[in-house]
Amino acid sequence: MKIKKIVFTSKGQVEIEESTLKEGLQPTEVLIQTACSMVSPGTELAALRGIHSKSGLENPPDWLRYPSVPGYLVCGEIVDKGPGVENFNVGDRVLGEGPGVWNSHCSHLVMESTDYRVVPIAPSVSFEEAVTTKMGSIAMTGLRVLHPEFGDSIVVMGLGVVGQVAARLCLLAGAGQVVGVDPLSMRREIASQVKGIAAMAPDDPILGQAEAPGDQLAGFDHAIEASGHPDAFHQACRITRIRGKIAVLSSPHKTMEIRLYDYIHSRGLQILGAHGAILPRQASIYGRWTDGSQRRFFMRLLEEKRVDVLPLFSHKVDYTQAPEVYRGLIENPGEYLGVIFNWNGYGERGDRGGKA
Questions:
Q1: What is the extent of the structural domain holding 184?
Q2: How far separated are the first and last CA of the chain, in Å rounded?
Q3: pLDDT score, position 355
Q4: Distance set, CA 179 to CA 40, 147, 214, 250, 301 (Å)
Q5: Mean per-residue pLDDT for 266-279?
Q6: How far apart are CA 165 and CA 137, in angstroms?
C-alpha cells in the first residue's frame, strides 16, 4: 500500500514523499487512515532547525536525525483491523500517534489496538477538535504539578496552543485570576476572547506591579512557563510571589543563565518540571493520572463543551502545503497559531463531528 508522508529530509528542508506500507496486519493491529494532523511548533521546529537540546549529541535519538517523519498529533478513521482486535471496529474515529514519539504526519498509520494512545473520539467531537487532545494532556500536566487551590492567581507565559489551553484549564481548575503573557498581539487577542483570561504583553505596566520588592505578598501564586524562551522564564521568576511555584511546561532548548540566589533561592520559589514524559504509563496508588487517562479526560472536556479549541487554529491546509507552512512558521511566527494538515480529503468534506 502506497502512503504519503511529510519528511524532514535535512536541516531546514521539508518534502512530501511516498513510501510503501507493509502488507497485512498483526492480529491486534489497526490501520488508521489519517483525517488530520497538527503541528507542534516548539518540538517540530527545533527538530527541523537542528536546535533541539538533543540534536547536538554524538548519538542523537532517531527522531532527531534526518530524514525523519515529524509529528505526534494525529487522528483519523480505522479502515482495517487484525482478527484479534476486539475493542475497535472499522469505521471508528480515533486518536493515534506514530511509533517512537514521532512519525505521525502521514496518510496512514498502523498501531497496536491496545496502545494507550489509541483513544476513541466522542461522536460530537470533530476531527479538528480531537487532534488537540495530546496538547490538552500536555497542558494538564502543568496544572497537575502545581496543585493550585481555588482562588489562586496564575500567570501563563507564552500563548501558543499549549499556553492557550493551559490558561483555559486554569479557569476550569478554579483560578481566581488568570493572566496570559505573549509578545504577539494575535495570540493575546485570541486569549482575551475567553471570559476570565487577561492577556498582556511582557512589558505591560501591570506585570511590573507584581514585582514590587517591598511587598512580600506581591506577585502571582503560580506561573506556567509555556514559551520556551529564557526571557519569559526570568520574568516568571520576577512576577511569581515569594514561595510561589513555577511549572516549566515548555521544552526550552536554549542555554539559560540565571542568578539562582536573586531569582529563586532567596524567594523560596519552587521550579517544577512538567514534561509529558513524567506521567506513568500505568495508574497506581502513587499516581492514577497517566497520559492515556489525561487524553480521555480532555476528550470529555471537548465533548461537554467545557473547552473550546476551535479559535486556536490559524491555518487549516492540505498536507501538500507542508513545505510552505514550515517556512512560514520559521519566518513569520506572528501569523501562525494552530496549524492543521488535512489528509485523504477529510478537510474537503468539512468534517465537524460524527463519522467522516
A1: 138-278
A2: 22
A3: 42
A4: 23, 17, 22, 17, 22
A5: 84
A6: 10
Q: What is the pLDDT of residues 24-43, one digit of tens each?
A: 999 999 999 999 999 998 88
SS3 for 23? coil
270: burial class by Cβ within 10 Å (0-12, 13-18, 19+)?
Answer: middle
How buried is 60 (Cβ within 10 angstroms: 0-12 exposed, 13-18 middle, 19+ buried)?
A: middle
Cell numbers for 319: 498536507
Q: Which residue, 225, 257, 278, sits at the end of a domain?
A: 278
**What are the helix (H) ranges across the chain?**
41-49, 127-130, 133-146, 161-172, 185-192, 205-209, 230-239, 260-263, 291-303, 322-331
Residues in the chain: 356
Higher pLDDT, residue 203 or 53: 203
Three-state DSSP at 238 gives helix
Q: Cβ neighbours of residue 219 under 8 Å, at least 6 residues apart?
A: 210, 211, 212, 239, 240, 241, 242, 244
> Pairing between strand 240-248 and 119-120?
unpaired
- Report angle CA 256, 260, 262 to the nearest 5 degrees: 120
287 located within any domain: no
CATH number for 154: 3.40.50.720
- Encode pLDDT of 208-263 as tens digits: 888 766 666 789 999 999 998 899 999 999 999 999 999 998 877 777 788 887 88
- From the list 71, 74, 94, the residue with the least C-alpha distance to 7 is 71
Within-domain flag for 199: yes
Q: Which CA distances in Å does 12 have to 17, 63, 180? A: 16, 15, 31
Helix axes 133-146, 291-303, angle to 10 degrees: 110
C-alpha cell at 42: 516548539
Rounded Cα distance between 132 and 39, Å, is 10
Beta carbons of 72 and 101 less than 8 angstroms apart: yes
311 in Cβ contact with 162 (< 8 Å): no
